[in-house]
Structures
1.
Amino acid sequence: MALGYERRGAPVPQAKTRSRRPPAARLRTAATHRYPPHMAVHVDAALPIHALTVSDLDRMIEAGVLTEDDRVELLEGVLVEMSPEGPPHAAVIARLTRHFVLAVEGQGLGVRVQHPLRAEARSQPEPDLAVTANAFSWTGHPTSAVLVVEVAQTSLAIDRGRKAGIYARAGVSEYWIVDVAAMRIEVYCEPGPDGYAVMVSHGAGASLTPAGFACPPVEVDELLASG
């Protein structure tokens, strides 16, 4: 017997009412709640990955899929979240920026801080600091540099591995990794298609001078001094 009719004067239970919202709208709401946009996910290494190109990245930015607020960089076809920047990380970048900006004056070079480097077709990292010959170009990002510096607090593995390979293939003459926890600077040079041929680690009391341009030495103790 259908609900909504009476039988012998007894009340008949009424069917529970459900949301009249269209199914698609409910799905969109659930997706928004469960999966925030641009949330980092871990993918099974066995799964096939569609590698992105720098051109794909450009189109994503133009379409509004990614914005300047999204802290990601393209590394070998994969969009990777950039590490959060703590006070020591920021302090080292600020000190190096001041040092190199004064040093390159009049040498036809410029200093770029956390800006894209169009290193190869599937890689556009954003190094903490880069000294380049076309730092002020209006039409495109630099494709290489005479010096790239990455400041590592939580990103040491990727800076030594994937990023070192990208910078070497892009012909970056010299690559520094500032290891904040170990109070050391690793200097990579002699780039090639298989990576850098030489790495020298400098600790307390050491002074470093870039090979690609005239510059006063960088004192490790001063650069990594707290306070």
2.
Amino acid sequence: MIKITGNGKKVQSGIYIGRPSPLGNPYNTKPSSITNQKTVSLQESLKKYRVYLIKELINKESKSYKIIKTLIQRVKDNKDIQLNCWCCYKEYDMDNFIYQDNQCHGQIITEVIYDLINKTYELDIIEFGDKYEIKGQIPVFITPWIKTFQTKEGEYIIERNKTNDNIIIKLKYIIDLYKMIEI
């Protein structure tokens, strides 16, 4: 089980994921002396962090890659993991997680771990006429964007328009990044 807490560095147990740790989110939602990044909204910060983390995981020499690889093995071995950050105001039990708006980048770390273990990024996006058809296992983080288009279990039909075209472009980009990760 993966648990995310708001304990920061206050506890000895667990893995610290706040700034400036290798898994820290460099995209600030409030002014910070630790990074030079421009302040952005929480949702923008988390969107940028997801792409940042996936790009970090492509590099097998990065500290993030090595930590995530270790965490994946711990999950596979059924060992508990505690991720500690400053911004998480409540504990999240990710094994019983129901997607909601992210509050902490620790949720993204957890989603990526489970997506990599379960290979939930293996799906087909088929373009036909004025629609997209998506089949396969949908990554946890994509579900909120497309859940309203679900026609049956594991199948989505999306009308083509500018907004949905952008969603599909982002989905393809992130799926391509995932496929480059070798863990």
